[in-house]
Amino acid sequence: MENIQKQIQDITLHATEHDLQLLEQLLKSFQLWKSGNNTTFISSLLQMERKISDDDCEITIPISPLLYNTLHIVHGGMTATLLDTAMGVLANSLVPEGYGAVTTQLNINYIAAGIGEHMVCTAKMEHKGSKTLVLSAEIHRSDGVKIAIGTGSFLVIEKKNIG
Prior knowledge:
4 helices, alpha+beta, apoptosis, six-stranded antiparallel β-sheet, 2 domains, HotDog_dom_sf, PAAI_dom, fatty acid metabolism, cell membrane, 6 strands, Thiol Ester Dehydrase, Chain A
């Protein structure tokens, strides 16, 4: 505990306003995750808001400096994470109880820069077999411009075999 307090003190002592905003976002994300509102830390960190139906999954995240690459646009890996998460959430909602779906392949085409206030990713099922699923997804930024499209293949496995 003392080590963590010292690290935070050292960081805040020489921090810019931008640094403090990022640190505050990280701390809020940790608190949100600990409250049990999100199943994963990444969901809390990215402030994911999910809407799931029988046919699709929509996830919205705010665009913030936490997501930026060196060009101050959304890092491609964050875009990939959003695509994979939306398709994975939908895939896992489609498998029978006691089973899970894990990504076996992820294909992405980046179309435009991730800028603006938020990104919305919508995933839909393309194929549902007994052992595999194929899904597709699109991400749009707050001005409606499409940022990326992706497809993913998912393997259906028994949860007792995970780990």
